[in-house]
Amino acid sequence: MPPRVLQRIDGADGPLIVEQQGRLRQLHFGNGITQSTIDTTLPGRLPLAANRAMLAHLMFVDPPRRVLLGGCGGGAIARWFHARDPGIAGTAVEASSEVAGLARRWFDFPDRHSGWRLEVADIRDHLARDGAADTDFILLDLEQDAASPDWLASTGFLAHCRQHLSAQGVLTLNWIADDAERFSRALSRIRQVFDRRTLCLPVPQHENVMILAFKEVPALQEMATRSHRAEQHWGLEFTTFLRRLQRSNPPGSGVF
Question: If you count Cβ atoms within 10 Å of the first and of the last residue's Cβ in the chain, which end, N or C, has fewer?
Fold first, then answer.
């Protein structure tokens, strides 16, 4: 059965299309990118492999209490966090009012009583206004013209992110590795700002590479056991992530 179009908006940066196929609801951008997918019957499930990889850090740290999402899309990550642990509070900062409206209408973005809020703003402006250093997890999932914008890996912006993290906080960037030199420059700056405490997690069959940057070196004792326990708690394939991280990050690279 072909997907059914629920809504189409001609946004400032091109068309935004919401489709339903069976239990899956998707948000597509006009450039062909599937930005968000949710299972309408299971809020604690993330159908997209890239979305699940964005949360790989959860095997290394305690469950977060405060989360900041730079880029909301359909709000799948916020919805998932709220379903898995309603005690987590978070803010999603989305630059597009059209995308924010679709997240609320079609993708079950948590309501105002949930501890989550959705702010229409530029993430750079949000960080400049909010001086608190109490965020346990910052996720940056932003693209411009089907690529990661250069400012996302500028030392000034990254330093702002680091300042907002709690002592055990983690920053994850969903970097679209469309150009090897741009990726190398971005990773070099991230490692500079975070004192080389980084891990790279490629997403198979995608251009996406998740760059995990830790404010402090995470605990690595009994990682096989820790990843298994986290897998049971969060319902994500952490054992697979751990093997991929160990293959992609040589000893002495900063964390391993």
Answer: N
